Amino acid sequence: MKVFVLLAIIGVAMAIRCEVGASGNGASILTDTDCSALKSEKCKSYTKTAGGAEFKEHTCGECESDEEDCEDCATDLCNGAGFKSYIVLPLIVVSAWLMF
After folding, report:
1. 59-67 long-range CB contacts below 8 Å, 24 or more apart?
2. Phi, psi of 78 (to 5 degrees)
3. Are 23 and 29 in contact (CB under 8 A)?
4. Residue ranges of the domains in the chain?
5. Cys staple from 29: which of 21, 69, 81, 100, with CB 3.0 to 4.6 Å?
6. DSSP 86
7. What does the alpha-carbon distance between residue 78 and residue 85 come to, in Å, rounded to a whole number?
8. 2 sits in which H/E element
9. pTM passes above 0.85
10. CA gap 4, 13 in Å, rounded
């Protein structure tokens, strides 16, 4: 049983999570997304202009040549404004459980 729990935790820890959505003009609509389901190992953010307004697009994947001002990264939630770690508490609890 402990082996299966450990394998599940390793799978969750290896999955990359990215901020997906858009931000600009003081507002942002971003959600945490598991990008491993999309077979992506990187997060990216780039500036887009639509209708005279400029905003920052956040999504899964690597930068492409036609995306100006694009930055990609390979750590959890690295393309958003903040860093939230939801896996720390479950890892501590399961680690304590595995020890006993």
Report:
1. 59/18, 59/20, 60/16, 60/18, 60/20, 60/33, 60/35, 61/35
2. -80, -10
3. yes
4. 2-99
5. 21
6. S
7. 11
8. helix 2-14
9. no
10. 14
What is the total residue count of the chain?
Answer: 100
Letter for the amino acid at 32?
D
pLDDT in tens, 11-28: 555 567 888 998 888 788
- Domain 2-99 sits in CATH 2.10.60.10: yes
Structure confidence at residue 1 (pLDDT): 63
* Positive or negative: CA dihedral 5, 38, 74, 46: negative
Query: Which runs of E-coded beta strand occur in the chain?
Result: 17-24, 27-34, 43-50, 53-60, 71-73
